[in-house]
Amino acid sequence: MARCAQGAHEFLESVFAPTVAALCSVDAEAVCSRGGLSFVQLLKPFCRLPVEVHVRDPSNQLQPVKNLRLCISALNTQSYPPGVARKLLSDTVSNSFSGDGAITDVVSVGSYDLNINTTTPWFEAYREAFFQVFPVGDHECHRHYLACLLVVSSNHQDPMEQFHQLSQEQHRVQHGGECPHPKWFSPNTLKHYVLLHDIGTGDLQRAEEIYDGIKQLYGSSACSLLRINSLLPGSQRDDQIPEPWSQYMARCPKLQLQRLCDGWSVASNGQDAWNAEPASVPPNEHDGELKTESDCAKKTHLLEVEVAGEENEGRAIGTAAMVTHGACLSLEDQERLRQFVQDFTIHGLLPHIERTIRQLNDQLVSRRGLSRSLMTVTRKWFGGSKTPERLGSEPRGPSGITYSSEAPELQLRKMGDLCFLMHLYELAYTCYHSAKKEFQNDQASIHAAGAMEMAAVSAFLQPGNQRQYPAHYMENAALIYRDSCRNAPLAERCTLLSLDVLKSHGQFSDAAAALIRFTSEDSDLQAALFLEQAAHCFVCMRNPLARKFAFHMILAGHRYLKASQRKHSLRCYMQALQVYRGRGWCLAEDHINLTIARQSFSLHQLDASVSAFRHVLLHESRQTPAQQAALLREYLFIYKQQVGEMPPEGPLPQLPLPFLDCSLTRLFLGHDWKPAQGEKQAATHMSLDQHLDAEAVAAWQELEELAASKATTTSTAYQPCQLCLSYHTDNSKPPLAVVNEPIKVEVVLRNPLQVPLLLSDLCLHWNFEPKSYDHDQKLEESHHVTNERGIDGISSIESEVLPEFLLPAGETKPVRLQLLPRCMGKIDILGLLYGLSAGLPASGLSGGISTRESQIQPPARPLGNGVSVRGRQELHLQGPRLNSTLEEKTSVVYGPDNRLCPIVTPAMPLLEVFFMKFPSALLCGEVRRTSIEFSNVGPLPLASLVVATHSPEFFTFGSGNSAPNSDLGPYHTCEGEGRASVPFFPSRESGSGLVVVPLPGGRLESGQAVSLPFWIRGPDAEGVHEIRFLFLYRSVDEHPKISHRVVRHTAVVCVASSLVASGRITRSLQPPEPRDSRGRDANSGCEEAKDHQRLLVQLNVENLSQLSSSVQQFQLIQVSSASSLWHLYCCLTPSMEGLTVGPKEKLLLHFKAMEMRKNSQEADEMIFSNISFSNEQQVPSWSSPCRDFFISAIQRNLRGRGRSRDVLYHLDRFRKRCQVQFGLIILWKAVVLEGAKEMELMGQHHICLQHLDQESFSGTLQTPCGSTPFLETVTLEKSSLNVAYASPNFSLLRCSFRFSSTIRHSFKDKRLCTLPVVLVLYNCCTDPLHVIVNSSTTPGPHLTQAAFTWVGCVHHRLSLPPLSSHHLPLQACFPRPGVFDLATVHISATTADAVEVGTGPHMDFINQQLPAPAYVVVENAEC
Fold first, then answer.
1. In what helix (H) or strand (E) does residue 62 lie, and over which residues does it extend?
2. Sign of dihedral through CA atoms 1410, 1413, 1414, 1417?
3. What is the SS3 string spanning 432-480?
């Protein structure tokens, strides 16, 4: 809340004071002017008495009067033009603006923290000036002259005659009838004669003689001798002598009035003087776009002057403020002045007032016939309906009747005014209250309103607040002034008097209502002041109303603007903005900011104007496109003026448009890779068109680290090669660029407006510091280079400049700019440099504006004479939040982001990769031959080229002799025996996905290109596959900063279904085949020993293609095996016509595998054997690419399977007994119809068979549905043996039953039927086994209760030699006829070495597969 410097009591007492006129001779004014003052100004600081005085009331009682102040003014018979008064009030408000030095305070109002003014000195100055220039009325007497000071200098030739002339002049003015102004309280005005003596130039003796003559003529109480100017002119003034006149001169309205009157004419010819306008008004210097509401038609009012410009404010009193006042007055002179005023008041003025009060009291008592004592005044004194004395010839005016000067009502009002001036407030209230009734009875509205007004003030000023303040008196008086009397100044005065009274009582709501009630359209300045005070009242209420405060502040700012008080208008809008900012009041906030922007520009506050315009344009606005276009033009116009005032050598200004999304800024190092040219397709590598997520970035980094471990030969720490940096990458270290290779930056721009923005000469803003990183090269010392002021003369960096870049309305659009460094050093990319303007370019579309856009949308109005501002915008990047240490966790700390600080390093080799005829669609398992080209376009040779991928089974480079020589597509053929043993040396790093590219000579020179064969195989799963290739290479010579470089390629292949193959291996129980004389098997032709094992291989091939697909049939051309121990051969002679599988058909094939004996030299070899199904030459499966793809499949299978950690050691040994490590390679051929053209496709599938009796599939590691776990260990009840149950896929032995399938038995003769059964056990392993056979009824996890029982010995334990059999006799007993399953015997086995490592009887056995269902039919012989 704005507080006033004066309290309510002090303010009211200062408003009403006894008024004394001063009439000075010319020589007296000359004496006073030596100190730069007039006589009235000389007495101004001493008009308040420092002592307490006493005055007698009508009852002759002494009443103390404290802080009595006199109002001494020069006697002037002219009435000042109202225009002068209005100009004075306007200047007073303007000059009282405190500007940046205003005292403010933060007030918390709900959720608002308002920074508002604690004081309003402009309102106090306006109020003081208003009461000083307020015209004196006839219906009240408290501002009428009570006395007159006649001042003559002692240097006058005839002072006595001059006093006589001044006395006659005063008499003429008061009683001549020629001068309606000023007003006098009574006909017998007190005259006081002052002889002014100049000590420095006058004769003191002569002065005393003249003074004695004056006393003899007029009396000693009516005369005074005043001696001044003790100091000589030009003498040095003591700094300790106070100078009290300046504070009064700065706010002396009547002095300013006198000066302003020289340029004004007095209204005449009966025209209402108060409606006269100033002679001239300074024109507004800001027209056009920035014209505001203040340019509307001017309103006229008594107390307001409309001023269009504010640059001349304060000039009226500027000269007076610079003069040194009272230069010839010493401390003694000031004391004489103070004593003079005090003596005049005590000995002259107060006795005169006492006599006047007694006279008025006597007249009232004599006319009414009442008691002389007013202290016992009753209702009877002033009651009745006596007709007042009035002038019969005067008509009744709009304010009521007109009274004569001797009317008792006016006499009562005069008595009340005198008592009020003498601080006799209780007596004054009685007089005003009685006069109010008389005036109301006579319907004298203006007199009644005046009496009510003064009665309310008297009631408030009574000591001790004896009476309750009658607020309704003030309200009614103001309404009468405004409505009945049509006198706005009186209503305004009434409101101003009641304002402080209501605020002192805490009635802020009533005060605000009164201020708003008397806000009219007549005076914009008065309305603005009242609305502002009302806004402050809303904040000071018990429940503050922040939004009402802001609303009325906006109204006040609007009225200030109409009154040409731009500074105050701007201040009000700024305070109101605190409430509306960021609260969702979009239109209100835009209106306030727009007004602030325009008024700030009018006041030449360009920074504030630009800031406000920026808020209107940048924040979400609901302005129409046309409005936004106009605002943008205004903003650019003001911004250009602000830029014009900046020093030319300083930095470019910060532009607010368009928005920069700094977090999406990306940097790319390197050239743009060439697009596909026919069958030649370049590696996709990296570009700004690719948007990688965090998962993709991590995958590429993993491949790079894998390849770097193979290619890098130095011991330096690994550092990834970052080519494209974004917020997904690790930007803690600066990126490493290469000389003569471009650096591209993508910046995302957003246009928040609904109008297009045109950016001209758009380029990157950078600083460059030359620095050498090559030990063999030294650079000369040079300073930083920047392109902020242009690129003329800069050869170290070539910067791309876009002539025009159009950003459409409301769109987000990236822009890509390029730098080409020509020397080593460090680059700091700071932001963007561009020229900002609105609309489309006049020259057409270019610089990022596509032709398609120009065809779809017609171009807007060309910016022919628009405004363009050259500036910059900075890119502020913020790294990731740190959260490692305790300090970082408990605070908000962000790491560095150096993605825009590249370091330019020496030259490096540059690799380009091209794929020839790379397919985009494949069948599952399809093999294609293509080629890959490596080209070194850099200035240096490269070496150590490796390829890393997550899908090593997808491709192979083959070997030197792998070129195809037949019509079998990508394969080559051979003649001879279809079996070979080859060393097992894969070309890959243990299946890790790392391949060394076989470059000729191990290096690639600058400008050299090499083409290598390249085989690819379709993945085993159908769908769309993304396969990543990372080519890593390094320079032949060690680089000081970069250890390696990479090229990335992502191949997207659509894979269609083809074949799926599955296989199973079981042990063969057949005896060896007959042998020929050379010991060969008659069917297979392979050499074998008598104890060689045999396996049965089952192959199931299914065609998954649809009937509607382009591939109808698949032809199996060859089945090959790969194993280090086993050899594959056919059970039957294969058909040479080929095996064909149609859509949705299955093909089941059976083969045999025989164990081969190898010596120690063949331990690391793998046996490949082929079985061909066509007349064509067979494919050597032991050569590339067939072997390479098979080995990749094996390595993938081994990586995927792993080993369970919770299996016991000896159980794992059992598992190893059943491992065969057998692989199948199925080669197939298919014909694809593409229109009228047939194309033959080749492919291969792989099956990795690792365990007996376990089905495996091609291209998958899944276990068939419904299969049991591999091992499960349980403990049988009533047994000391721990038995592990094995699934059917894990068998150490085989068993079968031999018995009679049908038995006839007479149960009548013999109740039980017994059946001899022989259990045949066969050891399938090459190790001896210990077997337990349990035929008791104890159920296990897989046993059920049977309807028969085993008799005899039911628990057997025996040993089986390797590859041997044993017949175990058993006996079953049946109690009734029926069909029974004999497969209820529980069999478990373990190896002999497992028994040796066991402890005691507690040994683990593996549960074996139960025999197949063995049914026996028992018949009753009697039936």
1. strand 62-65
2. positive
3. HHHHHHHHHHCCCHHHHHHHHHHHHHHHHHCCCCCCCCCHHHHHHHHHH
Q: Which residues, in sequence order, are bridge partners of residue 1253? A: none
DSSP code string of 334-385: HHHHHHHHHHHIIIIIHHHHHHHHHHHHHHHHHHHT--S-GGG--TTTT-S-
Q: Is the peptide bond before 1316 cis (omega within 30 degrees of 0)?
A: no
3-state class (DSSP) for residue 1017:
strand
1055's tokens:
């894979």
Helical segments of 689-791, H only: 694-711
Q: Is the pLDDT of residue 602 over 60?
A: yes
Report the candidate in 209, 124, 102, 198 with the shortest Cα–Cα distance to residue 155: 198
- Look-up of token digits 């009402």: 548
| 445-461 and 425-441 helices, crossing angle to 10° | 160
Quickly list H helices, 845-940: 851-856, 886-889
Query: How far is the C-alpha of 687 from the C-alpha of 848, rounded, in Å?
Result: 18
Nearest-angstrom CA–CA distance, 128 and 120: 13
Phi, psi of 268 (to 5 degrees): -145, -170
- The answer to whether the beta carbons of residues 780 and 824 sit under 8 Å apart is no
For residue 192, what are the β-bridge partners?
Answer: 149
Residue 1220: which residues within 8 A CB-CB, separation 6 or more? 1065, 1095, 1123, 1125, 1126, 1153, 1249, 1250, 1251, 1252
pTM more than 0.85: no
> How far does Cα 780 stand from its chain's mean position?
45
* 250 or 395, higher pLDDT: 250
Whether the per-residue pLDDT at 814 is higher than 80: the answer is yes
- Choose between 783 and 1401: higher pLDDT: 783
**pLDDT confidence bin for 207, thresholds 50/70/90:** very high
Residue 1026, judged by CB atoms within 10 A of its CB (0-12, 13-18, 19+), counts as exposed
Which amino acid type is present at position 1326?
A: T
State whether residue 1173 is helix, strand or coil: coil
Sign of CA dihedral 31, 35, 40, 44: negative
Q: Is the pLDDT of residue 1264 over 60?
A: no
Q: How many CB atoms lie within 10 A of CB 463?
A: 10
**Mean pLDDT to the nearest integer, 1162-1169:** 74
405 neighbors 388 (Cβ within 8 angstroms)? no
Q: What is the DSSP string of 1227-1246?
A: EEEEEEEETTEEEEEEEEEE
Pairing relationship of beta strands 1009-1017 and 1023-1035 according to DSSP bridges: unpaired
Residue 383 — φ and ψ, nearest 5°? -90, -165
Rounded CA separation 1098/1156 (Å) = 20
Tokens coding 185: 């309280």
Q: List pLDDT tens digits, range 437-446.
A: 999 998 899 9
At which residue do the structure tokens 């009154």 appear? 563
Task: Label residues 334-373 b or e (16+ Cβ within 10 Å = b).
Answer: bebbbebbbebbbebbbebbbebbbebbebbbeebebeee
CA distance 759 to 802: 9
The answer to whether 152 and 195 are in contact (CB under 8 A) is: yes
Helix, strand, coil shares, percent, the chain, to 5: 30, 30, 45
- Between CA 362 and CA 781 the distance in angstroms is 107
Task: Report the C-alpha gap between 668 and 686 in whole angstroms.
Answer: 8
Helix and strand counts by DSSP (H, E) for the chain: 30, 57
Cα-based distances in Å from 104 to 115, 506, 575: 6, 21, 11
> Tens digits of per-residue pLDDT, 736-770?
999 999 999 999 999 988 889 999 999 999 999 88
Going by their DSSP bridges, the two strands 1355-1360 and 1365-1374 should be labelled as unpaired
